[in-house]
Design goal:
Number of strands: 6
Number of helices: 5
Mean pLDDT: 85
Shape: elongated
Radius of gyration: 24 Å
Oligomer: single chain
Structural class: alpha+beta
Number of domains: 2
Low-confidence stretches: 154-161
Largest sheet: 3 strands, antiparallel
Order of helices and strands: EEEEEHHEHHH
Helix content: 40-55%
Strand content: 15-25%
Strand order of the largest sheet: 1-2-3
Length: 161
């Protein structure tokens, strides 16, 4: 650790303490060259990958955007908030677990679609219609046929029209 006063490269740790929350470590250091003391903090830094959009632009991963996508697809659908939160956490964890610096927006969209299919078939169709840019009724029919055989969410209300 470089001394902030004399820029010396040799410092000694005098005292180390964990924060009350346990999420950081405070270290008191002493510079060997100038004898001045200073404090440093160690914290965990988790970095989500950047999202690469289809046009090549990059943006930081935003869990709020993910939540908005789920909310739009699930608007007025009978899906408990706990299940939605769990799905969002599952997608975020999968993205983080990839360990990549970048992820394509298409890959994120596919993960969202898989989670929506587990939660609610109507929400899945809503999301897919925008995500896959449905052009006509045939595209909707194909998507409905694809989800007709998918298993319903446990405890879901199985109504027939």
């Amino acid at each position: 650790m470089k001394c902030p006063f004399c820029k010396g490269h040799e410092t000694q740790v005098v005292d180390t303490r964990e924060s009350e929350e346990g999420d950081s470590i405070r270290r008191r250091r002493r510079c060997v060259s100038c004898e001045k003391r200073f404090t440093t903090y160690e914290t965990v830094e988790l970095r989500m990958p950047q999202v690469v959009k289809h046009n090549g632009t990059r943006s930081e991963f935003d869990a709020d955007k993910l939540r908005t996508s789920f909310k739009r697809a699930l608007h007025k659908r009978p899906v408990p908030t706990e299940l939605v939160d769990a799905a969002i956490d599952h997608v975020s964890q999968k993205i983080f677990a990839l360990g990549e610096r970048e992820i394509g927006s298409r890959q994120v969209g596919e993960m969202v679609m898989k989670e929506l299919l587990k939660l609610d078939k109507v929400a899945y169709i809503r999301f897919a219609s925008v995500y896959k840019s449905f052009q006509d009724v045939g595209d909707f029919a194909d998507a409905v046929d694809a989800v007709s055989d998918a298993p319903a969410r446990k405890g879901a209300d199985k109504r027939k029209s």
